[in-house]
Design brief:
Helix content: 25-40%
CATH topology: D-Amino Acid Oxidase, Chain A, domain 2
Shape: globular
Number of strands: 15
Radius of gyration: 20 Å
Largest sheet: 9 strands, mixed
CATH superfamily: D-Amino Acid Oxidase, subunit A, domain 2
Structural class: alpha/beta
Number of domains: 1
Number of helices: 7
Distance between the termini: 13 Å
CATH class: Alpha Beta
Amino acid sequence: MGVELPMPDLSQERVLRFIWGVRPCRRGGLRLESEQLGHVRVIHNYGHGGSGVTLSLGCAAAVSAMLGPPGGERVAVLGGGVSGLSVALELLRAGHSVRVYAEVLAMQTTSAIAGALWFPLGIDFPEPGEARDRFNGILKESYSRFCELLGSDWGVREIDVYEPIGAEVHPEYFEAGVIGPPSVVGAGDPMPPGLGACRVFRSLFVDTTRYLPRLHDEVQRLGAAFEMRRFTDLRSVADLDERIVVNCLGLASGGVFGDAAVFPARGLMVEIEGRSIDYAIHDGFKYIFPREDTLLLGGTYEVGCDGPPADDSGYEVILEHHRHRLSRASV
């Protein structure tokens, strides 16, 4: 048995709040393509599922490449979450004039409650071939750009991620080659208390409580205009002054652009006061992530649910799961 790492404190008095959010998923995965809708050119960037933060910077680079150099026209970016703001930042740095249209501010979006571990989870991967190669290229680009933020005030750091040995193995998550595949934790190596036989890999952790405000401030500093607006259908998009639109509406893309492949997947989380550990535990959608000042416990993946739960039982199940695991730790 290896040396146990610090024990997370999940005592009841440290429970800060229960959180729910909705992942913007899509059957078939990411939609990143351009189409002409009348007099408006729309570049779609949605279907990120549980990988919005993970894919954000790579998708933003792809959108910029599709758009090309500035042509004097202002670009409308629809959506104020991590995807929309990342696109806005990329286009501003390339010299475009940008207006961001959003129904809510960044810290009120689903992006704000993400952990977020850099890991392509909760999204359909393309079949092997050209589309898969493109997807892996986006992952590589995104990871590289997040690495550039290490050691800065953006809230990005490296982290060890531990998984129980019996957790599902998904080789495709590591196929892009930017994070190494998990290795079995050997006898005598540090391991989380109560986890038992496990494996570990190293990735990036993006603390959205720091990252999103920093991203928003940078977009604002570089001169983007912001307008609060809700989009309900194609007409509401066509009525914009801009003739170039980047769609980062996430879940709303289904209704606005008539994409029946879009669906919600609710996630429940519990936030715990204090960061008592500096590693992550990951077991599918059951996890413990260390934010700057709190722990984030997950979780669920409830397909078709797009509203708050009827009661707190789901949150209590999450707490019980993690507390039970910790109870197996050696004393």
